[in-house]
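Usage example:
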Amino acid sequence: MRLKISTLKYAFLTVTALSFLLAACGSGKKQAKDSDDLPDTDTAKTSLLNVGGEIISIPSPIQTAFLINKVGSPFDKSMLNPTSQLTSYSTKFLKALNLGVYGADLGYVTMYDQTQDALSYMNSVKKLADDLGVSSAFNPALMQRFQANFGKKDSMLSLVSIAYRQSDNYLKNNKQNDLSGLILTGGWVETMHFVTNVLKSKDNEEIKRRIAEQKTTVQSILKLLSPYASDKQYADLIAKFNDLSAAFEGIEIKYTYQKPIVDADKKMTTITSSSEVKISAEQIKTITEKILAIRALISGEKS
Amino acid sequence: MMGNPMNSYKYKIAMRQLGKGLLIFLVITFSSALAKAQCDTIANVCAKNMARQFLSDGQEYRALLLNSDETAEFHSTFYGGTTYRVVACSGMGDGNLVFSVFDSDRNLLFTNSDYKNAPYWDFKVNSTLDCIIEARLGGENQGSGCAVVLIGFKQ
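Running the assembly step on the lines above writes:
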């Protein structure tokens, strides 16, 4: 009889353990990583509901595309990652990074009213999103709306931004913050590639300033990537970002606080604080080289 | 098999424990699903305050706050020459989330608690700055809840 009680206890422990195991597995979405290439991570750290801790934001690539357009830089297709590269991204790691890269390219071509290119990049984005299990964000309805809005730049950019926000939400919801971080990283690297390229043909203070202003974002990206450093792919990327971080070290940013002005009727605060940046030609050259090295690792493009 | 009253008693205890284990499992599973569903619903409500002229930054910031003393911290960069909209929500109505914006030196730039916990606010940024957005539960939402922050921009 002792044996039978032990068996019951064993059964109870097994069921309880299985229960917690199932709970830890979340909702069991089929899209969850199938471990072809990405590291297992501490689910507590990658939880959707980040309790208390710091939550990092990476500026949208579209913001920098706006700046490039604003300074009058001509459209330059050669600096984009060709869509023909798509089939060479076989791992989730590369797919996620290049979903970010193609998203930035999509923002850029849309900004310059290159509708055929926009469609081509949108299709590449959709393919990668499908492969990563975020097809719900880039669904057929979105694709139709995107095409229906050809020529309406603002609407096209709005649709793309919302789709990226939905995929970010989906990935975080399904404890795939690692993929979410890679998409943001890829998008950021591509826009840095744009601005450093633009500077080669057009000396512009606003562009130089924008490069210098990325000093904090480099640290933010390192924070996003570092939890996964045990994986070799991440380790290689992090090593290159550490090189890049070193290149940013000497950049001086002097911030001066000033009291903001509030217009309560318009629900608007004007932030009047100022910041001065100092970045040398040598620093820009080094940053350009480091960005090229990271981009080569991500996209296989050496342009 | 169950003839011995002692064994029968132990069997009942074991079954009761099994029942408790299953109950805990169900509570955890449903709580997790409910929290996600709650956050999704709040995010949809929140998105309505992001006017069309603002482009999303492509990210959604969420945190589960267990009480009104707990604070979620969001780090962001606001570029000069840009107007940003910060939308902050918790619960199904407006005014349930108190959010404050600080610069990196922790100078307070804005708090919606001065404006009846306004669910959104615009920031016209003259010069690029790194900022910290802090969010905590307020208004009617004094228990626990999902905090959602969205950031949009226009040139």
